[in-house]
Amino acid sequence: MVVITPSYHDTSVVLCRHPISDTSVVLCRHPISDTSVVLCRHPISDTSVVLCRHPISDTSVVLCRHPISDTSVVLCRHPISDTSVVLCRHPISDTSVVLCRHPISDTSVVLCRHPISDTSVVLCRHPISDTSVVLCRHPICDSSVELCRHPISDTSVVLCRHPISDTSVELCRHPISDTSVELCLHPNSDTSVVLCRHPSSDTSVKLCRHPISDTPVVLCRHPISDTSVELCRHPISETSVVLCRHPISDASVELCRHPICDTSVELCRHPISDTSVKLCRHPISDTSVELCRHPISDTSVELCRNHISDTSVVLCRHPISDTSVELCRHQFGK
Questions:
Q1: How far apart are CA 308 and CA 239, in angstroms?
Q2: First CA to last CA across the chain, in angstroms?
Q3: Model confidence, pTM
Q4: CA-to-CA distance for 284 and 277, rounded, in angstroms?
Q5: C-alpha angle with apex 276: 270 to 279, nearest 5 degrees?
Q6: Strand pairing of 96-101 and 324-328?
Q7: What is the pLDDT of residues 284-334, one digit of tens each?
Q8: Which residues pair with 252 in a beta bridge?
Q9: Which of 32, 51, 215, 219 has fewest C-beta within 10 Å?
């Protein structure tokens, strides 16, 4: 049986029974949007439900009260992805919350406002690691930020875009040193880069892969000379290598360990002759040794100090006889 009565707003009202739930249903026109409205009781929560059409997207809208938080809930379809959308108020922060399904990963997504920074926040599950993910805007650089848990170290991870290179950046805590770590892609070589703080010197450290040898590389600042330092493994000798700039000549310097005598070796370019120079310590006399190529004869040259007379010594091969030659200045000037 249907009863038609005039309403307060002078719109037509129809009272009937819902054919499925057998509950009272009120059909009327919305006084503002002039769209059809259905008022009924929810069969489970026994709360008031309003069914209507959204005036802009013309999609079905369900207005009701959330059975737990007793907040207003709007159920509708997203106009673009055609997925279910729930609009409500967060019970703690009292901010607008949108619950829907992600159109690609089909995971639950929560859209709300961050209570502190007042930026848009997206809560969802990562499709691969199945960890909680928070997508929001960085309050300073206004770039997209993704907060989640690292699947291996179980540490907090922040994924965002670097404002300069526009590459993916991952900010997390190092599991051992508990220092801030930033993972991104190097803009030139497209290799993985890790930016963190050195636990001892508290200087910026950049860990990446060398594009040629594919060995771990550490880029940091030298605490004394404040020059760029690159730490990696030598691909042949498997010894630690330090690549930096010489503070005086501004030439490339490579510090490593000699594979035989295990002494410190420094490889650089000579500022005058532009030849390869190897600076190390002599294993017996513990004096500075410079190994290079002679610019004219292209023979091996060893420059060191004589440990007895403390004079400059040049050891090389004679270009004709191929015999060892030692050139030095005698301490008495002879």
A1: 32
A2: 130
A3: 0.23
A4: 20
A5: 75
A6: unpaired
A7: 444 445 544 444 454 555 544 444 444 445 554 445 455 445 544 333 232
A8: 245
A9: 32
Q: Are the beta carbons of 307 and 300 closer than 8 angstroms?
A: no
Give ∠ CA 283-289-259 in degrees, rounded to 5. Answer: 50
Among 275, 272, 260, 265, which residue's Cα sits nearest to residue 316?
275
The two structure tokens encoding residue 79: 């106009």
The contacts of residue 210 (CB under 8 Å, 6+ apart) are: 191, 216, 217, 232
* DSSP per position, 193-232: EEEEE-TTT--EEEEEE-TTT--EEEEEE-TTT--EEEEE
Amino acid code (one letter) for 234: H
Q: Which residue has the tokens 């207005």?
A: 63
pLDDT in tens, 79-129: 445 555 555 554 445 555 555 544 444 555 555 544 444 454 555 444 434
- Encoding tokens for residue 26? 């009120």
